[in-house]
Amino acid sequence: MIQASAMPVIRLISASTIQAPSQADSDQKIHLTPWDLVALPIKMNQKGLLFHHKPSSSQIQHLRHSLSSTLAFFPLLAGRLIATEGENNTTYCHILCNNKGSLFVHAIAENTSVDDILQPKYVPSIVNSFFPLNGVRNCEGTSQPLLAVQVTELVDGVFIGFTINHVVADGESLWQFINSWSEISRGCHKLTKDPSLERFFLDTVEPPFPIPAPSPFTKEENQNSQNSTPETPVRVFHYTKEKIAQLKAKANAEAKTENISSLQALLTHFWISMIRCSFVDAQEEVFIFLPIGVRRRIVPPLPENYFGNALQIGVVRMKAGELLQSGIGKGAMEMNKMVASHCDEKVRSQYVFMAKKPVLLQLGGAVGAKALATGSSPRFNVYGNDFGWGKPVAVRAGLNIGEGMVALFGGKEKGSVDVQVCLPYEILEAMESDSEFIDAL
Questions:
Q1: How many DSSP H helices and E strands does the chain contain?
Q2: Does the keyword Transferase apply (predicted)?
């Protein structure tokens, strides 16, 4: 029996290993880039889709078969991480496409409906139980599946939860896989976009790259992942295309420019509201962390279907008082400059630096009352995923999104954006009472 923190509960029906139909490349070894290795210590990436359709037993069995067929195109997702010891207390890591398989879980939430998920102000805690491998860190991919899927039947629908190892794939690659699986599930024999599995390496630094001590693979380091994740409230805020356009116009007018994007304006608005409702001292430094996609920033650009990680973390720092007093234009302009600075030269120089001196992301990190860390993107194809019974009605991030984390998704209506955020209850309640924040919703 799988149980959330309180009633209701979900009942486990089965758990099985799904392998690709062929082991032709069972010994394929995929070296990892510095962009991949940085994610080793953090928890696996979790995203899920909610459908207003209750699948039959034959449809669930069809999902198993179509997942196997899809893994033939994505053999690394059926593999495992391999860690080896090097000299001077270093560790090396690669992916072995050994077809040990992905995890497929079938469960039922007998007393939970689609409306029970969508109507509450806060995301119900039972949603956390709709994802497999909760609390598992990426470095545990030496023994845990690199991909796990949970299909949870509801009273009048179904939730498909995806847990993927972030060392293997970033958000863009995760949704590429989900898009591909839904295509094959609908009966397509050819993918719209075949994945490009070849990793990006520079001639000046060759893999494998050493991981310095303390190794995230040691027993002592992994004990942290056994601790339960404290429950922090999660809410989803919806922004229409019209409201986002107003925020963009306001930011550009204040900054006297036309360069600030819709997303930069929206994120700055949200950041300002969070800091204002956190009552941070005016002299305190506050932060917002953004993943910068580099597929199209490298010259020549990486293949559009590049499957792996192609991200660098950018950060904007400002004094709380300056951020609040300067308005949306100042913060958005600082964000715009930071993003624009990630040109080909900077991306390559940071790659070399990370290859020679790897820096791993830390559990928790500098997020919370003084910082936001963003993830996902409204540009990903979320609502186009039809597995044969219609498109989803909602998307959610899983338990592995921690305090101060923001997940961005394109809304159901074209041009709209849903912002899922995990923050302390008192901050979220204060934001709901903040007129400037509410006016933009």
A1: 12, 16
A2: yes
- Residues 147, 264, single domain; the answer is no
Q: Are residues 253 and 201 in the same domain?
A: no
Residue 298 CA to residue 302 CA, distance in Å, equals 7
Q: Which two structure tokens, joined as six digits, stand for 63?
A: 């999902």
CA 36 – CA 211 distance, rounded (Å): 12
Question: Per residue in 84-137, pLDDT tens?
Answer: 998 888 899 999 999 999 999 999 999 999 999 999 999 999 999 999 999 999
3-state secondary structure 55-69: CCHHHHHHHHHHHHH
Q: Which helix (H) or strand (E) holds 351?
A: helix 344-356
Listed residues 165, 180, 211: the one ending a domain: 211
User: Is 386 one of the annotated active-site residues of the chain?
Assistant: yes
Rounded Cα distance between 127 and 397, Å, is: 9
Residue 221 lies in a domain: no
C-alpha span between 127 and 107 (Å, rounded): 13
309: exposed, middle or buried (Cβ count in 10 Å: 0-12, 13-18, 19+): buried
**How would you class 203 by CB atoms within 10 Å of its CB: exposed for 0-12, middle for 13-18, buried for 19 or more?**
exposed
Q: Choose, from 25, 194, 386, 434, the residue flagged as catalytic.
A: 386
Residue 321 above 90 pLDDT?
yes
192-217 mean pLDDT: 93
CB 412 within 8 A of CB 383: yes
Identify which of 181, 186, 132, 135 has the alpha carbon closest to the alpha carbon of residue 161. Answer: 132
Instruction: Examine the domain organization and report whether 28 and 88 are in the same domain.
Output: yes
DSSP state of 198: P
What one-character-per-residue DSSP string does 242-310 give? HHHHHHHHHHHHHHT-S---HHHHHHHHHHHHHHHHHT--TTSEEEEEEEEE-TTTSSSPPPTTB-S--
Rounded Cα–Cα distance for residues 75 and 195 (Å): 10
Which residues face 163 on adjacent strands?
Answer: 46, 148
- Rounded to a whole number of angstroms, the distance between the first and last alpha carbons of the chain is 39
